[in-house]
Amino acid sequence: MAAAAGAAGPDAGTGGAAQRASLEELAVSVATEAGAMIRDERPDGLGVARTKSTDLDVVTEMDTRAETLIRARLRDARPEDGILGEEDGLTEGTSGLSWVVDPIDGTVNYLYDLPAYAVSVAIVVGDPTTPGAWAPLAGAVVNPRTDEVFHAHLGGGARLTSRGVTRPVRVGSQETLDGALLATGFSYDRGVRRGQAAVVADLLPRVRDIRRMGAAALDLCHVAVGRVDGYWEKALNPWDIAAGLLILGEAGGVASGAAAGEPVSHDLLVAAGPALQPVLRAEIARLTSAD
Ligand code: IPD
Ligand code: CA
Ligand code: CA
Fold this sequence. Notes:
alpha+beta; Fructose-1,6-Bisphosphatase, Chain A, domain 1; D-Maltodextrin-Binding Protein, domain 2; 8-stranded mixed beta sheet; globular; binds D-MYO-inositol-1-phosphate
């Protein structure tokens, strides 16, 4: 992913606009179906099925069920594509295109029934395991609890569909940190959180406020629609960000790593509108180099 999330030329190895629009439709339909399933079939008394990277990184039975459903739908529609999913890993394809899937982004919110979780489905060309090594073609992020579908295809702009109405979306125009409403997120690694807390402690008195909403895909979409001015987080994975980065870029937003123009990576993602992003990026880079 280049500095601007939609920076690759619209037709540079990325199929035609009509193909990308139909991939967007598929992403929307699969993510919407999985979103309805996790909302409507969430068991009462849902518990933790297992933990992954740390004791805080939980998986519920519905994460697994949602990924199984999404994989089945994508395999039926496009059997030649690869799929990288958070719960079941990478299935190689033969088309050069891969779906990047977070079956529930915001699992801890989902566990507690907080209405800020999403299904994120994107299709990329290139290496789906490394943000800087792919070009996004299409994607959708669905929050089934707010009935919101954020969606885009490369070169086609970003849209929000809610209650049957679709409208184009655009990032906000905030330029300075002092009036900026920012979002961030925290790692499942308790040690990494110490450094993240220090960054927040430094920044909080100097901005409008900071939100921790708990779903990275939604955080990116919230920048895309101007609900927050900027967002940063460390240690994100491809499935957290593949769809959201495309939607952000198509909404006029910019995302990078710590250095200007550096692709987003597991080390750092800083996203904002074009005026604020360089300012926020420089500040987060300065603070995180010390954490
Ligand atoms: C997590 C959420 C959270 C972010 C974490 C992610 P998950 O994804 O996006 O907001 O802070 O870094 O891992 O585990 O709920 O899919
Ligand atoms: Ca996630
Ligand atoms: Ca997840």
